[in-house]
Amino acid sequence: MSHSIHLSPDELSRLVVEAAFNADEQGYWSGPGTAPENAVAHLTRFLGVLAGGDDDLNEHELELFGEVFRAATGEHPSDPVLRRSIAESVQLADDPDALHDFLTATPAYLESVLAMDRERGTQNTRQVVTALSGLALAMLAADGRAEPEEDSVFTTHLGHLRARMESLGGDPDR
Fold first, then answer.
1. Which pLDDT band, with edges at 50, 70 and 90, does 149 fall under?
2. Rounded to whole angstroms, what are the CA distances from 7 to 14, 84, 104, 134?
């Protein structure tokens, strides 16, 4: 039997941050700040690049970004604050080397979630990567246009995260 599970962007965002929180709370985080802060920074940067990377931010993208931002941070920023956050992310896309480094790096919070999964036999990493994929697909679809650069950002980053997860045994299907 197959069950369809539909989670909203705010639920997916909270899932990412909650996994980071759990890894932090259980002692798997050793970076600066907190794992949830690192997760929020990664989530907003990744989705910000997807939202504004085509230099055409529309209202659907801004609305989705705001929903994710609110769910991840608990804050209710104004449209100008959201636009500024997206613009900061897009600056990353202006530097091909910096963008490549971001897309092929595993965020620290995800490393801590992966360490927690390895020790406890849980599947949080898989859930986080799946949630990130769902959020990215929602952002790609928000403007109704398919840009090759956006597809490349999506496939490069999520491909890297999946490969990292699988290489360290974070994928139970392997």
1. confident
2. 11, 27, 27, 9
